[in-house]
Design goal:
The chain is mostly helical. The chain has one domain (3-64). Helices cover 84% and strands 0% of the residues. The chain contains two helices and no strands. It has helices at 3-23, 29-64. It is elongated and about 75 Å long.
């Protein structure tokens, strides 16, 4: 490909990308905030659950294998 063809394909790509972004159904601010809160709550819940499992496994290994 020569430089002119690369420039044309790049410009075409960005024009088509911009046109596609105009057709996207963006969520409302309220919906965005609600979904963000759900993701944060779920992430914290999973982190707490995995942390608790880690503590239990460490405790179990110390009791069973190390006789502490």
């Amino acid at each position: 490909m020569n430089a002119h063809a690369i420039k044309e394909s790049t410009v075409t790509y960005f024009k088509e990308s911009y046109a596609e972004l105009k057709r996207v159904a963006w969520p409302s601010r309220n919906t965005l905030v609600q979904h963000t809160v759900v993701v944060i709550v779920f992430s914290v819940s999973v982190a707490v659950f995995l942390g608790a499992l880690d503590v239990l496994f460490v405790y179990g290994i110390e009791k069973i294998l190390l006789n502490k």
